[in-house]
Every structure is written in C-alpha cells, then in structure tokens.
C-alpha cells in the first residue's frame, strides 16, 4: 500500500530511531506522542478508519531509510490511542483498531450540530451522509458514476466540477473513502458485465443476419 503523494510526512519519519521503541521513558513518551499525531492526521486526511496490525499500512514502514515498525511498536502506538479515547479495538485479539480522529462524543456533538445547522428534524444517518448538506464536511467522500470524469473524490468542489452543467449526472456522497471506493468498484464491475452482455447480443444478431443472408 503506497502513501498518497499529497500527504506531507513529518521530519521524524525519516529518522531511523523513531521506528524502534525507545528504552528511555521520556524519549519513548515523545516518540509515542509523535506517532499518535501522525496516525490521526493521516487517517483523517485519507478518511481511513481501520488499521490492522497484520496488514500493510503506509505509515508503518519507510523504504527510503529501510525501516519498519515492529509488531510490538505498532501495538504500543495504537494502544496509546485507545487509552486516550482516540481509537478502539474491534476484536478481542487486538489485531484491528478503529481510529477515531474525532472522539465518539465529538462525533455525536458534530452530528447534532450538523442536524441543527441544516434544519433537519426526523432523519437517519443514511439521509445525513448521502444528502447534499454533507458536501465539504467531515462526513463525505463522493462517487461520480456518470459524467465528465467518473471516479472517487474527497473534495466536493472537485466532484462538483465533474457534475455541474451535465444533464443526467449520477453521483452520491459516502461517509468513508473506503465505502466510496467499494461502491465504485462494484459499479465498474456492473458496467463491465453490461458491456459483455451487449457485445454478446450484437454478436448473436450479427450471426443471425449472416445466416439469413447466406
């Protein structure tokens, strides 16, 4: 998994000692704090929520300096986030972690304020996340299905440029980029199946016409 080129990494990321748990308490506390901030910033910028200790994660290795975090180090940094309410283990074996770049209470306050500011009354999470009101907020990634350039967009203005002034456009907002990418992948798979069906129909019709003429 590659890191997005638009994410600016801090200076310590290129300093080898920070990829090894430091034995001195004061130094380790500083190290843990830096890694916590980096993980939260990265997940927030990329709208990522789940980190698995057993799967590749872009921040946990740096090929440039040939360094990778040990399993123990990754677990320590995530455990520190959990202890501060910025993450939660999603399994009993503590191998997958839900990253909360906003704490649960912060998310609750954010959603309540969002509902009030937009004059919404009886509503559901699905209504909130897919509605036009989420454009440009913490809760949105967008999939453009039909228009100028289809694909997944994190920025509403960029998405808007693809659908503005194009009749018959088809797009939708999603809470996370991962969900948006999954929905877009399913859409592309469906489009490929439809093209294959159309090609088969054309081939069949062409064959029938050939038989009739011959």
Automatic annotation (TrEMBL):
Q: Name one GO biological process term.
A: multivesicular body sorting pathway
Give the InterPro entries listed for this entry: ESCRT-II_cplx_Vps25-sub (IPR008570), ESCRT-II_cplx_Vps25-sub_N (IPR014041), Ribosomal_bL9/RNase_H1_N (IPR009027), RNase_H1_N (IPR011320), RNase_H1_N_sf (IPR037056), WH-like_DNA-bd_sf (IPR036388), WH_DNA-bd_sf (IPR036390)
The alphabetized UniProt keywords are: Protein transport, Transport
Q: Does the keyword Nucleotide-binding apply?
A: no
Note the superkingdom of the native organism.
Eukaryota
- Any one of the GO CC terms: ESCRT II complex
Ribonuclease H1 N-terminal domain boundaries: 142-182
One Pfam family, please name it.
Cauli_VI
**What family classification does the UniProt entry report for this protein?**
Belongs to the VPS25 family.
Name of protein: Predicted protein
Phylogenetic lineage: Eukaryota, Viridiplantae, Streptophyta, Embryophyta, Tracheophyta
